[in-house]
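# step 3/5: fold
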Amino acid sequence: MSSLVEAVRAGRSADVVSLLDGMTDAERRAAFPELRSLRKELRADPWTAQARRVYPALHAAGAACQTGAAAVASWIAASDMRWWSASPGVLIDLLGDRSPAWLADVAHRLAARPLTSRVPYELMAGLVRLSGCPVPTTEAYVHGWVDHIGHVWQRGDTILDRLRKDPHLTQLVAALFETADIGNRLSWASDGGENGWSGALARLTAEGTLDRRATVDACVARLLRGGPAADHRVFLGVLQAFALTRDEERDRVADWLALASDGPSVVAAHAQSVLASLALDGELPARRLAEMSGAVLFRTEKKLVRAQLILLGKVLARDASSAGELLPAAAQAFGHEDSEVQERALKLVERHRRTIGTDVVRDELRSAAAQLIPTLRKRAGDVLGVALDAPEPLAYEEVLPPAPQPVRLEPAPASATELAEEVGVLLAAGGDVAAFERTVDGLVRETHRDREGLLEALAPVLAQRWWYQPDTVRHPVESSFTGPYGLVGPSHTLELLLAAVAGAIPTAALRSAVALRTASDQCGHAPLIRAFETRIWELAFRIRTEPLPFLLSTPTWSTGLLEPEDLVTRLEEYRRLGARVSRADFAQALLRVRRGDRKRAGAAAERAAALGTAEGTRLAEWLASAPPTPMVRRRTSQDRVLVEADGIPEFLDGLPDGFRTLGLPVSGDAARWSCYHWHDGVRPHWLAVLPEARELVAVRMLRDVSFTAIHDSRGEAAILPLLAESDGEAGAAVRLAVAHGLGARHPEDRLASVDALLVLASRGQLDAAGLGADLGDLARRGVVKPSRLVDSIRTAMSTGAYGTVWDTLRHTLPVLLSDLATGTATTPARGLADLLAAAAECAERTGARGEVAHLAHTADRRGSSRLVEQARRLRTALETELAA
């Protein structure tokens, strides 16, 4: 036994195999405890060169020295040995003398492991082969099989050749269609034709090696089940490679109808083409075609909708007797959001007006025609021989979501145990500003009250921190917090405070950080992060030297706002306790205190002045003045729209170091430098630094948000809803941030920007005219693409905010239309017609009237392009008189 363990420790895998071959089962079992102890040793530092040598031998020996199938499978698939495991051949050699039933048990247990276990397919397949058991069809086994078959360059053969030789082909192909997220692996291994999966499976069904009907049914069922886009693409390719006969297509009409109705676009288009072929050959009853149309015409993909209307037209041209069923089906497109689709459907009815037979059909068409836009409704009335005047409009009422209300912070955790639980949650999953501020206040309070008790409660949390393990520390702990990147996110910030509580950072290092700590001023929001970090470093220093009884700057509300009476009450308690105020904590409290409510600020100022302390006097003076309004100006630079702001003397002269840079002027030039503040989680805390000055925060964050439209970056617009919920003026910087976000590349950024737009509107703080003009300017410069803006606008309209959207677009459109009117541009911007369509719908719904500059020029152009038609539609809507 000792020689086996010595060979394992030396990493001599060949000797380990030889020694195990000569050992009895009892001797192997006796050696296992030492192997388990060695594994525990390696876990302490698994990345050393010595550990990498030992692990393969340990992996093989541990598997061979256990007798239970569950234990062996668990050992083989263990995560700590995954990177340096024994080869499948070695493991099969060591385990091959066990009984077939035992080997089958191990094989199926390994196959049942998740994909992340990364059990080698060769090992599982080898155990299956030795045991003669049924092949597993689990996700891990099928994924491994696909990779194994696809690695044809290692053997010089093809996927088709390998599949032909596989003894478990039928079972694994059936499982292939049941396995989730397999599309990427299949497409990666395919190179087209019979050398790819699609061609190989089709050839095998043609040869009879695979049952064709069962395989086709499985493929169709997989498409019906849905899944990732890669799966749709691959399995659709497989289905198309089967080249179904007309009989096979006819037998699956119900499946094609389901796919055309609810399948992804690419799959629905294929199902639509199959049904169209059947319909044009007279093999699809009019009733089923009408059923199909009712589903497809409600889809959002215009290409599918147009194709369906074309199909209906062709069928009606061949068989006019089906008009009674098909015309009402086509009329369902009268309610489509795209007026061009509505017009196509109406033209179809016009073309076959003479085939309208019964009054029942006419009544159905008349009812559907009420959904048409006004310019088409009159034409529909002429077709049907009735007057289809618009119903008397009701007074339009804007529907906006309720404005989010700030939440009052709960008190700090009441005990050290509860605080430790919240610290663990924040470190593991993160949290918002409110959770962070409560936890920081709790750490300060508990350190002041009973530091030893706090450390005892925090023991489970501290045990997981690398800097709390003396035997694993390779460099001073403080260097991890004082690097060029600063405190990387709230979790890193919380770790600094924990390290201070635990005494892991020398007091001298904290003193130096407080005295010398600066943040790079090369980017626009460096002052925000500097203010945020300055308070944290001073709190860490005070934790080690002179703990505070509690924080003055803990906000009252989730937005970061602090009520003035709360701050006065805290200062009164500080005076009673004789506690020395932290300069950074008090500075942050001043920046957070509410001054916009002048009545409450005045009452609190009187109480503060009566304290007779320096801080009370400073607070009284602060509350006597209104919050500053930064002077923000727009500045254009080539294809960019930038903002710059004057300095704020109140910040420069009245705040301590670390906060004064908040009052520096902001220029577009400073924003172009590189930035280290990449962690998304810290951005909400910048708003909490200045909760009553969001315009100043927006000036410093505009560069980040603008990149979502200019450079297609992702995620920076997530801050916009919080910006809208904050307080202070919502001026040019806020508007430009929202405008850039509405034209962002990624849908999640556009959605966040729409949320911000609606929050500002519901709070009565949206300058729709200014936002519309900004959007027009950005679109003209190519910063915001109208095609992206349309998606944002439609999203806002879907909430019922038609009035808000119209008030915005009526100032955007003149900017874009002016280039066509003056001849500056000969080709309209892509998406302009869709913007006009959205504006027309808003005008029709809200009853808006008036003129839009340059609209008449576009509406009077020759032709019937979509741009001209939508311009005419908008002009008609704005000129139509409301019923008395």
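# step 4/5: annotate
Residues 433-462 form the longest helix (30 residues).
# step 5/5: archive (pending)
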